[in-house]
Design brief:
422 residues, alpha/beta, 9-stranded mixed sheet, 12% strand, globular
Length: 422
């Protein structure tokens, strides 16, 4: 692009973000101030990122408070006039990103050609530089001394925190599981996977109930069913109302007193449910920021990954799309200092093996999910010799960074309430 075209595309992208609050979640993975050439546009982009990090909407009034130069303020007004089409926001962002990368590539080649050292050595450095090109990423190494110092500071800070403080480590609600994984930590994804009917949603409910009972705000993406389904299972788990009673009001005659108690107490739990079906990962990350800003959510639960529209009409390979979705979910949670929990489906490979023991490859599109996760647990409800469930839910921790691998956590399963306990 020439400068005139670049200016128009930059202004179009900024205009899209000012005019449509939904535009951000379509371009957040490629947006960076460095893709803008004009200084005033770069200043506006920095201000937009500040607003997003503070959990505030990208609004022209708020943006003016974060810009100083007259040129940036004038450009802000001009962009708000809307010369771009909001549905093309990602197209504009990709154009700017690609042109930025081309400029960096040309600069790297020019610098390498001007050096007088060994040609093979300079060529090798150039190839490394070209392969490391990525928008918004810094490749500066950190010394082991600095890394140890940061680790010591974190451990010291956590040692001083008591159970009533805003500790960065949050209990899962199950002591036996905490003994192996430590708990939930901001920006550290936990993935729990199973075949259908093995207890994924029950574990999600148990996590949400335990967190809510301790006053920890949690956001739940309940993508397989409705908020009423979540509410019924939540009340069944927490207040021991038989799950079958919720099938029809005529079965509920002997449960209204317990329902009243559950409704009164449960309404005080800071648990927030989003049940929009067919949602994209960009929409999920946008809603995470909304929940964090409005409710202060410190934990997010996604049930389940297979219900997310990861491709959103693109031609991207499904495994790459899932990997991108996992990274966006993780990075958004990390940015919000929140704990990300994901539930996923297992494929049928484990059912075909004679030993039946799950492996990491049993995850749908396992490689990309495994890369992003720090904890991966497989759920199973064992049966006795007669083929009846034994009343136990096992969690086999096949990946447990910082803890013992292949550990088995056993929880009690209650069929009447579809609930879990220790």
């Amino acid at each position: 692009m020439n400068l005139e075209e670049q200016t128009i595309v930059e202004k179009s992208l900024l205009g899209c973000l000012l005019l449509d609050e939904e535009a951000w979640h379509h371009i957040s993975d490629v947006f960076s101030p460095e893709i803008f050439i004009l200084p005033e546009h770069r200043e506006i982009a920095v201000g937009m990122l500040q607003l997003v990090k503070e959990g505030l909407p990208i609004d022209s009034t708020l943006l003016l408070k974060r810009t100083e130069s007259p040129e940036a303020r004038r450009s802000c007004f001009e962009a708000a006039q809307g010369i771009g089409v909001t549905s093309n926001a990602r197209y504009y962002a990709l154009q700017l990103r690609d042109d930025f990368l081309r400029r960096k590539m040309r600069l790297a080649v020019i610098k390498a050609s001007e050096k007088q050292g060994d040609v093979k050595e300079e060529l090798s450095k150039l190839i490394n530089d070209l392969l490391s090109l990525e928008v918004g990423k810094k490749n500066e190494a950190v010394s082991i001394g600095d890394a140890i110092l940061e680790l010591g500071e974190r451990l010291e800070r956590e040692a001083k925190e008591d159970s009533s403080s805003e500790s960065s480590l949050i209990s899962t609600g199950f002591q036996t599981l905490d003994n192996f994984v430590g708990g939930f930590r901001p920006g550290v994804p936990h993935v729990y996977a199973a075949r259908p009917g093995m207890g994924k949603s029950s574990l999600a409910i148990a996590f949400a109930h335990s967190l809510g009972s301790r006053g920890i705000p949690v956001g739940v993406f309940w993508l397989e069913d409705t908020t009423q389904d979540f509410a019924s299972r939540f009340m069944s788990h927490g207040w021991k109302i038989p799950a079958t009673k919720f099938r029809h009001g005529s079965r509920f005659n002997d449960q209204w007193d317990r329902f009243g108690t559950a409704a009164e107490q449960g309404a005080r739990y800071p648990v927030h449910i989003d049940d929009v079906h067919g949602i994209t990962i960009e929409e999920i990350t946008y809603r995470m920021r909304q929940m964090h800003r409005k409710f202060g959510c410190r934990v997010f639960i996604l049930d389940h990954l297979g219900e997310v529209d990861v491709q959103a009409g693109s031609k991207e390979r499904n495994d790459l799309a899932i990997g991108r979705a996992m990274k966006m979910y993780r990075d958004t949670a990390k940015d919000l200092k929140a704990c990300p929990i994901v539930f996923a489906q297992m494929n049928r490979q484990s059912e075909r093996r004679t030993d039946g023991a799950p492996k990491l490859s049993d995850l749908d599109e396992s490689g990309k999910i495994e890369q992003a996760a720090r904890v991966v647990g497989f759920l199973d409800r064992p049966k006795d010799e007669s083929g009846n469930f034994t009343g136990t839910l096992n969690i086999l921790l096949k990946k447990n960074t910082g803890g013992p691998p292949d550990a088995m956590v056993k929880l009690k399963w209650n069929d009447l309430y579809m609930s879990l306990g220790e």
